[in-house]
């Protein structure tokens, strides 16, 4: 008789302090056969900041050791910050973790590889991908993270699926701080399942999102943050999902989405009823008729708040007329008259940014 296997997945991790797990959380971790996290940034102490738009993020040199003490087996590195300090820092991070325990980063062979692990006589395969970005293996570089929209991804998934009993993908993509996936990512994740994967577990938005089934296979759209030492005033920044998948052989018996709350450096499991209600509310948003309107409203808000400036700034333009913006514009006009091609790249080629802006512009045009 096959034994039940318990696999745990958590979302985004950036450690610049040592996490303290409560006994309840420790017990859950110790009861699992596998524990996987999205390791969001390289270790400090090597490399130098690459040229990019957005913050450069790095983790305490002891971050890997701290996580291994809690039993983490696999570290997904396919994310938008893993190459923030260049090849050298990524190589050091992979060495600290161990190449066999790293998913989705390195050279092309390493990044797109399927890592396998036998648990209770079932062969599991794990792959990790991220959306386009300054570290993606998109033709701009030879070392970085696996790109989810690489033309060969479906073929690679199909080949991996033929060699394992269960294939689980992690994908780092989506719009930050939006509690539903945008339609384009919903479509893309379903394509990945159609290619042969058995489940998609995603992260990047920094907040928890809902889940749905496609052809009886689950998609978990965002686990949010697990332990993210980076300042934010968002109310859900320190509340994330801990996904428990239970398999018997090839069969998914079920899942539980636990909620984990971070207070300073302490991590604790949230109330089970609260977690169930949170997921139920998020799932409702995926299936109501106003779902598209909800995404569009966020896109327009994000355009007005951020992206209008992002498109004006590369050309030393001015998106909004207020005293602060005018003073910044004068400063740029005097001291920096070069085109910011990195900002343009950020706007045009990172899928979530591009798709969100397209949605906002279409709405603006219809409203005229």
Automatic annotation (TrEMBL):
InterPro entries in the cross-refs: Capsule_synth_CapA, CW_Biosynth-Accessory, Metallo-depent_PP-like
Domain of life per record: Bacteria
Domain Capsule synthesis protein CapA positions: 6-230
Entry-linked Gene3D superfamilies: 3.60.21.10
Record field: transmembrane: none
Family indicated by similarity: Belongs to the CapA family.
PANTHER family: PGA BIOSYNTHESIS PROTEIN CAPA (PTHR33393:SF13), POLYGLUTAMINE SYNTHESIS ACCESSORY PROTEIN RV0574C-RELATED (PTHR33393)
Name of this chain's protein: Capsule synthesis protein CapA domain-containing protein
Organism for this UniProt entry: Sphingobacterium kyonggiense
